[in-house]
Amino acid sequence: MQRSSYIVRLWWGCLVTACIGPAACAERLPAAVNAELNGYMQVCREAGGKPDAARAVTTLDFTGDGIADFLLDVGSLDCQDAWSVFGDRQKPVSVFVGDGRGGAKQAFADTTYGVSIGRQGAATRLWITVAGQDCGKPAARDFASENFCQRSLVWKAALQRFDLAPVANARMIE
């Protein structure tokens, strides 16, 4: 019998959970999140790797409604023995909004150079790392010359989705 455990930590006063072991995530994630995660884990397996999803999903309230939401960051999915399977640059990121009844629906999906979690006032913010035109800059001739920035995701309750904040609010990465 495979055993699973959870890491629970306090982050800015919010409870954050991460799963340890492949079965742990499947036991507690909504079906939509689990299906997407399993798809990426299968890509890893097909490349000859062993997926470790312990850090791939973060559970927090990103909408401010008191209900757990889910961040799936493929850049945090370790694919042991096939490390390059997801490439070395942009990786898929998805945000799923919890419905309070154990389900969730996808409210954002894109490929990014990274994602981080921060605070703005009382709200938890997701910051997406993007480049070039997404930063209000022309595309560079080569990757080494590219302009990178972080843009926060803004919850649009009426539309039930996250959008990138205006480029004027971007934080340039030097």
Give the overall silhouette.
Answer: flat
Low-confidence stretches: 1-26
Rg measurement, Å: 17 Å
The DSSP helix count reads: 2
Number of domains: 1
List the helices and strands and how they pair.
Layout lengths: L4 E7 L2 E7 L1 H7 L2 H16 L3 E3 L4 E4 L8 E5 L4 E3 L10 E8 L5 E9 L1 E7 L2 E9 L16 E9 L4 E4 L6 E3 L1
Antiparallel strand pairs: 1-2, 3-6, 4-5, 5-7, 7-8, 9-10, 10-11, 11-12, 11-13
Please, could you describe this protein's structure?
The chain has 174 residues and is mainly beta. Helices cover 13% and strands 45% of the residues. Strands 9, 10, 11, 12 and 13 form a five-stranded antiparallel β-sheet that branches. A four-stranded antiparallel β-sheet has the order 4-5-7-8, covered by helices on one side. A two-stranded antiparallel ribbon has the order 1-2. Strand 1 and strand 2 (14-20) form a beta hairpin. The radius of gyration is 17 Å and the shape is flat.
Can you give me a brief rundown of this structure?
The chain has 174 residues and is mostly beta strands. It has two helices and 13 strands, in the order E-E-H-H-E-E-E-E-E-E-E-E-E-E-E. The protein has helices at 22-28, 31-46, and strands at residues 5-11, 14-20, 50-52, 57-60, 69-73, 78-80, 91-98, 104-112, 114-120, 123-131, 148-156, 161-164, 171-173.
